[in-house]
């Protein structure tokens, strides 16, 4: 098939799972065109992300005149369809947090996307996230573009389903993808029950070959890593507070950057944890892998999630996981078998889990590591998951 991925900002350092999915589809013989509204506004550290940026066509970089021309062509080509799409964009803008004008811009973007897809002979459009990329894919379909689908990750979509017109996007889609059964249950809340069979679970995936020879767990003082954007939903402030309660010999490395970095650094200083907590900022995939290999476990203290990629990657790398009991995480992490699950926001419980990790016998950690690795590789092979996605696309082909 000829598939177009329609995305808002691509590539982004935190969304390597999209890159892996695209490349898996290409390995299976599908031709994938990358269309994004805009590039990442920061520096791309990873060479793979820079390569993806070179292969991506950016809609907004074409300028206002090109988008206006695309909208006029769409109006002339099918006036009734254009008016209907404009009404839908206006309706979505009325309930949206970003407003009507922004949705009229989405309409112009959709006209350009529909034009590019027709010119390239695209069979199917797929978007990631139920936000503006899904809106553009839907409006493109209304303007004569290919059938579309989109993957919902959460938690953002579940925080504002009405403002995102999530039900409308699902109703007009050929199908919708959830990354976990929990995610599917949330989408079922906003879908007509008659359409529940068009909501499919397709996991985000890992490339097993990358984890073919995991570094064995080492002895010595225990080290844990937390990987992710430094934002409110990830719970790093609670993690630092928990570290202050841990009396065992344990070191925490925080990998990532974001808007809460200043607050986290200040809390580390206030709690005098500078010798026990390291904050690296953004690092490339090689550094992430090296830090994970040097650790004894991943800790994921999130308040809200979909199904975190870093959890499945850590498990595939034979590392136990300490995570919060939220969203799709319990579908992957099994207490006492592959790691620990604690209530989100419970600092004392998180501290107890880290104490348990720090004091656990080495062979217990190794058993958890092996069980987690087997579970992640069984459930999250990207080639298997991409084949599932392609099968749904083929079944929906016009």
3D architecture notes:
It holds the Pfam family Glyco_transf_4. InterPro entries: Glyco_trans_4-like_N (IPR028098), Glycosyltransferase_grp1 (IPR050194). By secondary structure, the chain is of the alpha/beta class. Helices cover 47% and strands 17% of the residues. A seven-stranded parallel beta sheet has the order 3-2-1-4-5-6-7, sandwiched between helices. A six-stranded parallel beta sheet has the order 10-9-8-11-12-13, sandwiched between helices. Strand 9, helix 11 and strand 10 form a beta-alpha-beta unit. Helix 10 crosses helix 14. 46% of the residues are buried.
Layout of helices and strands:
Blueprint: E1 2-9, H1 16-27, E2 31-38, H2 47-54, E3 56-58, H3 64-77, H4 79-95, H5 100-120, E4 124-128, H6 132-142, E5 147-152, H7 156-159, H8 166-172, E6 175-178, H9 181-189, E7 199-201, E8 222-227, H10 236-245, E9 250-255, H11 261-270, E10 277-281, H12 285-293, E11 297-300, H13 309-316, E12 321-324, E13 339-342, H14 347-359, H15 362-379, H16 382-396
Parallel strand pairs: 1-2, 1-4, 2-3, 4-5, 5-6, 6-7, 8-9, 8-11, 9-10, 11-12, 12-13
Helix pairs in contact: 1-16, 3-4, 3-5, 4-5, 5-6, 10-11, 10-14, 13-15
Pfam families: Glyco_trans_1_4 (PF13692), Glyco_transf_4 (PF13439)
GO molecular function, one term: glycosyltransferase activity
Domain Glycosyltransferase subfamily 4-like N-terminal: 17-210
């Amino acid at each position: 098939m000829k598939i177009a991925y329609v995305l808002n900002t691509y590539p982004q350092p935190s969304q390597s799972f999209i890159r892996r999915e695209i490349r898996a589809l290409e390995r299976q013989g599908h031709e994938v065109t990358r269309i994004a509204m805009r590039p990442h506004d920061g520096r791309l550290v990873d060479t793979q992300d820079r390569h993806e940026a070179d292969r991506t066509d950016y809609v907004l970089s074409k300028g206002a005149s090109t988008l206006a021309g695309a909208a006029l062509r769409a109006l002339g080509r099918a006036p009734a369809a254009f008016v209907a799409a404009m009404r839908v964009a206006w309706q979505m803008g009325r309930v949206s947090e970003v407003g009507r004008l922004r949705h009229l811009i989405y309409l112009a973007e959709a006209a350009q996307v529909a034009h590019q897809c027709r010119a390239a002979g695209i069979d199917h459009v797929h978007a990631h996230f139920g936000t503006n990329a899904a809106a553009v894919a839907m409006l493109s379909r209304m303007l004569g573009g290919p059938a579309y689908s989109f993957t919902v990750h959460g938690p953002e979509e579940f925080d504002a389903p009405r403002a995102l017109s999530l039900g409308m996007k699902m109703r007009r889609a050929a199908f919708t993808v959830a990354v976990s059964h929990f995610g599917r249950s949330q989408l079922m809340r906003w879908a007509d029950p008659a359409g529940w069979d068009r909501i499919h679970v397709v996991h985000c995936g890992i490339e097993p070959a990358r984890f073919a020879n995991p570094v064995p767990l080492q002895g010595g003082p225990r080290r844990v890593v937390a990987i992710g954007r430094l934002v409110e939903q990830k719970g790093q402030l609670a993690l630092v507070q928990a570290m202050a309660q841990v009396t065992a010999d344990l070191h925490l490395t925080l990998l990532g950057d974001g808007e809460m970095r200043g607050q986290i650094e200040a809390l580390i200083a206030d709690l005098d944890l500078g010798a026990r907590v390291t904050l690296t900022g953004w690092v490339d995939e090689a550094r992430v892998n090296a830090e994970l290999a040097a650790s004894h476990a991943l800790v994921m203290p999130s308040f809200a999630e979909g199904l975190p990629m870093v959890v499945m990657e850590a498990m595939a790398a034979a590392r136990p996981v300490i995570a919060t009991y939220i969203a799709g995480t319990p579908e992957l992490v099994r207490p006492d078998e592959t790691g620990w699950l604690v209530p989100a926001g419970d600092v004392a419980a998180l501290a107890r889990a880290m104490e348990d990790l720090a004091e656990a016998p080495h062979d217990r950690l190794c058993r958890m590591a092996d069980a987690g690795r087997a579970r992640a590789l069984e459930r999250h092979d990207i080639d298997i998951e991409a084949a599932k996605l392609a099968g749904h696309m083929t079944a929906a082909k016009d």
